[in-house]
Amino acid sequence: MSHLHDISQHEIGRLRIYMTRGDSVPAAGWKKFFGTPLFRHLVNLAQKDGILHATTHSTPYGFAQGKNVSEQHPEYSKKCAVLYVELTAERQQLEEFVKAHGELLQDKEMTYKHMERWKLASASQSLRQISVPAEL
């Protein structure tokens, strides 16, 4: 069977940083009463640092290590609700991100998973990329 597309593979990784909705970045002045949510700050830093993908995922029910079980409520936001920020990029880039922003992450649970990134190319495009002209 002839296929119209080829798959190219590239090794990348996924880093999950777990936190609660109430975790925030310390702020100065009058903003210290509100602070920026840590999950938003991390996504913005990831974009600035050139991370491939950054998303947040909230959980409807769960707990963080050493904390009580929390449930999301449709009418109000609980500051103890668990969520995670997921970053996808090459392992070295993720390691650099963690080292550069260690002061924000030192008490956070983090997990890393190796993955493959797939890209589709048409079979004719792939042949053009790997074909070598014959020398006369």
TrEMBL record:
InterPro entries assigned to the protein according to its UniProt record, in alphabetical order: N-reg_PII-like_a/b, N-reg_PII/ATP_PRibTrfase_C, UPF0166
Gene3D superfamilies linked: 3.30.70.120
Signal peptide span: none
Family that this chain belongs to: Belongs to the UPF0166 family.
Protein name: PII-like signaling protein
Taxonomic superkingdom: Bacteria
